[in-house]
Amino acid sequence: MPxxxxxxxxxxxxxxxxxxxxxxxxxGGTMDLATAEGETLERAPGGPPGxxxxxxxxxxxxxxxDAWRDLRRNPVFIISGLVILFLVFISLWPGSITWLSPLKCxxxxxxxxxxxGHPFGFDGQGCDVYTxxxxxxxxxxxxxxxxxxxxxxLGGVLGGLAGFxxxxxxxxxxxxxxxxxxxxxxxxxxxxxxxxxxxxVWPVIGFMVLLGWPQISxxxxxxxxxxxxxxxxxxxxxxxxxxxxxxxxxxxxxAVAPVIVVATIALGTYISLEATLSYLxxxxxxxxxxxxxDISAASPYIRNAPHALLWPSGALALTVLAFIMxxxxxxxxxxxxLR
Length: 339
Description:
339 residues; mainly alpha; MetI-like fold; 2 domains; 13 helices; elongated
């Protein structure tokens, strides 16, 4: 009698997992490969391809969950996030940490140093520097956030559509972005904003969106072109998915990460640009309270009253640094190549 081979006594012998998903448990029995400890793995509702969760509701880690886990352990993200939260808080409720008006000035106290109740001293007009620094945060954060949102939306939509559909529209958009890249930002601000007489933040925000969207557009275009070549997008297209479903359901969630990273870093740049334009006299104008305006006004008195220049300059530098550090932390968390 021939010696029995392993195939003669192994249950389910000759069947591959693809045939019946049967595997040897090692204890004389079989187990469905789709189950483990009585829990059937199912795709999470609305989750991206490959995102699964067990019957207990525990979702398998995705790019975003891994990124959030890394961010929570990153001290750079924690420190910059706390600074930004504080800036947002004083922007929304500046009266919670100061009781004076930024427009209330006393020429008799012009250029005086720190005093009780006035820790930062007074500027050349006798205004409380501490109060103006606090209220200046509202202007800077407002301009930075709104300009970033406008740039991300306009550039992301145009670049995403161009990258998805391609053709003549993509070629035209690429040439338009090249033209905008050739315009110096500060020089463009001096030319365009010099004819604006409004004292609101909207002309400055509009200028930043006008000259800032090409960078986001180019990044979004390249990210969408890469994402639409993936196998799951091709499979969804073969199954009859519409263009809108492909864009919103499959491509955008996998192509938005680079846009978020660049927009976060650019937010600090827009705050700095607003201060630069206000310093040159073409951005925000008095009576609007702005760090750039205060730095410009304090520059002639740097020898007699350096505190009036150093405090708004320090607040501007700290704010820009916080957003740049936040952007770097988000980039490190979202970039798989850095893992």
